[in-house]
Design brief:
Oligomer: single chain
Radius of gyration: 17 Å
Largest sheet: none
Helix content: 55-70%
Order of helices and strands: HHHHH
């Protein structure tokens, strides 16, 4: 099955790369490229998604994984806690780092 790419919006990664290249921020560009690499590899190794909801799910999961990895937090532990909270009808655990949450609670 082939998707019609003529109706898709420009890839945010391409736009961001163009902005970073023109602003001369080579370190930022390298960091950005490293951060989107898992998404690019996933897309090349799969057939993409079949719906807008599937695309939103993939975006969300990749954002969660990248955020947790940057914070050096365990991805599986977070996803397990989020799933258990959903089963209990509770809110998902926060993606904010613990030290930021503590300072906000004190305010």
């Amino acid at each position: 099955m082939t998707r019609d790419r003529s109706t898709e919006e420009p890839c945010a990664a391409k736009v961001a790369c163009t902005v970073l290249k023109t602003s001369g921020e080579s370190d930022l560009l390298a960091e950005f490229n490293r951060s989107i690499r898992p998404g690019v590899q996933w897309r090349q190794g799969s057939f993409g998604t079949q719906s807008a909801e599937g695309s939103r799910f993939v975006e969300s999961m990749m954002t969660v994984v990248a955020t947790l990895k940057q914070q050096k937090r365990n991805v599986l532990a977070y996803l397990t806690a989020a799933h258990e909270a959903a089963l209990r009808g509770e809110a998902a655990p926060s993606l904010l780092p613990a030290h930021k949450m503590e300072s906000q609670a004190a305010a």
